[in-house]
Give the backbone structure.
Amino acid sequence: MRLDFSEIFDMSQERKNIENIIINIPKNKIPELKSLIESGKITKDSTIYDFKELGLTPDQAKIVKKSLSGFSDPKFMVFGLDFVNEIDELKKMQEKNTSLVWTGPLVDTKAVYTIDTMLEMIRSAKYSITLVGYVIYDTAKPLFDELKKARKRGVKIQFIFDKAKKYRSAIEKMWNGNDIPEIFSYKPKEKSSVLHAKVLIIDDARILVTSANVTGSALNRNIEMGLYHSGKAAKDARKLFTSLIDDGYMVKV
């Protein structure tokens, strides 16, 4: 049977009680607490003495008792503890997998520089790189040095730009060699439509979405900002651009 946790305690006193336990009860004690509740050894009618087996203080025992008294079935509290803990773990994972990226004049420990992020991502590539942008100038050579190394490792590379034909000479100058990767240009089906996205996708697993164009100014001097993410969104984004190519919105130049 699937339980709808939101109906049990979402935005309610029960949820507050659950969170109170997570905050005040040592984390290593919670699995044993759940086990004792499930076995019926601890109930809302238990005395403070009954909690000694867990090694809880009297105040901690009172918190558990108060929480238990708010549930018609004590097992709902066990489900709640699991559910809230799972949400907490997912939030931690998301925070770990997502980070702020920027170009700017300040040093901020909470943000990584755009150029450093892009170089690290390209160096880590194992089989595919998709670089999407609005404009590209021949002042972004450090990126191309790493892209050429990735190409030598057998990594497939795609360039997708708004007016790629216009910037092909800049790409060729920075590539400075044969075996230039595929270059696609946006072919709008509506007037005044442009490809304005700036995206770097690595191995369908990592993605940078940024305001920075592929230019020396954007990577080193402007104030630019974006988000790096490791996860399914990278694969979804790559599929979107593949669909645009398949549907004729992007043409090879």
Observations:
- The longest strand covers residues 224-230.
- Strands lie at 98-103, 111-113, 128-133, 156-161, 182-186, 199-202, 206-210, 224-230, 250-252.
- Residues 106 and 139 are 22 Å apart (CA to CA).
